[in-house]
Write a structure and sequence with these properties.
- This protein has six helices and no strands.
- By secondary structure, it is mostly helical.
- It has a single domain, classed as lambda repressor-like DNA-binding domains (434 Repressor (Amino-terminal Domain), Orthogonal Bundle).
Amino acid sequence: MTKQQPPRPTRLMGDHIRAARETRNLSTQTASAQAEISSGYLFKLENGYVGTPSPRVLHRLSQVLGLDYWELMGLAGYVVPTGDDSSPAPAAPPSPAAAPAPLDRIADALEDVRDELRLIRRALEEQRAASPGETP
């Protein structure tokens, strides 16, 4: 079995999130509970295994960890406004209270499943590339 390699852009974001969590002396479980995400998902974020984290999750984490939301968005690979843009800055996303908590948990779980499927697909593609003569 091949070792999973995290997507590069989100590795820096994960290091940033972990450093902020550790600076606040928060455990993974405490920080994830406060951000209303699973501790497993926070682990994946911190280790760069989430290719495209949702803006909603990044907003929650920015509030819990005292991080700049737009900086996290940029580290996650999203296009963010800069100070020299002539366009108005987008409004901050709605507060987590705007969506019912059960729906947020379902959305987070679906994002986890999507990310796991991407990792499985990548591993299968690597396995097929390593043995091109064999057919499953």
